[in-house]
């Protein structure tokens, strides 16, 4: 009987070998993911859950963010990393696919385990739909708030945009379609799975704890608040006045696909 060594290496992401036989595993010593060689490519995993390699940072259109400064490729994922003034959000977006389509993401918000909650108060991260004609957003994602002693989820919060172009755009909070109960901070440390579906009639949002089984938590008519022609991911500051926060998130999996 012949045995084959299944582990091809444990090292930093930069030292991941360019090639390896299918079935080999590379453990990243300076990041949260591991990679399994399959079909001649490295497939990312988080634990035993397969991920979808996010599109390269350079393929996104950005609002308020600068490529390779505060939005960049990072150890197999995409990272937002910046200080955010009141009402500032960084958006990475693409043209929406023809309906029906879905966006599915997993990310690790570093503010979930912050040592000083005030440094992250109103930090928020998730998925978004955008209307090109107005610049307005509909966002879906958890938010850290000391006022509720934990982390809760904005379900399709409407954000009106002020400014023109792709920089120095600020957003004004409006109402949520629905707001989740608080989520425990220690659960957030394992990351967040979100999904949004636009079927041409309605837009629906989902959460998951394993990236496989998703539960729908809300649905609205497709043109509620905006008529979306772009979709993407965002990171920023929901505060209405007076504070700058450090909101950082690593997206380990992003997939936008027709269904």
Give me the count of strands.
Answer: 19
Radius of gyration computed on alpha carbons: 19 Å
Task: Give the uncertain stretches in residue-range form.
Answer: 1-5
CATH class label of the largest domain: Mainly Beta
Q: Report the average pLDDT across residues.
A: 86
Distance between the termini: 44 Å
Strand content: over 45%
Largest sheet: 7 strands, antiparallel
- Silhouette: globular
Structural class: mainly beta
Reading side by side through the largest sheet, how are the strands ordered? 6-9-18-11-12-13-14
Number of helices: 1
* Second-tier CATH architecture of the largest domain: Sandwich
Using the coordinates shown, work out and report the CATH topology of the largest domain: Jelly Rolls
Number of domains: 2
Helicity level: under 10%
H and E string: EEEEEEEEEEEEEEHEEEEE
Characterization of this structure:
With 259 residues, the chain is mainly beta. It has one helix spanning 185-188, and strands at 7-11, 25-28, 34-38, 41-46, 49-50, 61-63, 71-74, 77-84, 89-95, 101-109, 123-130, 137-145, 150-162, 170-179, 192-198, 202-208, 214-221, 230-237, 245-258. The N and C termini lie far apart (44 Å).
Summarize the structure.
This protein is an all-beta fold and 259 residues long.
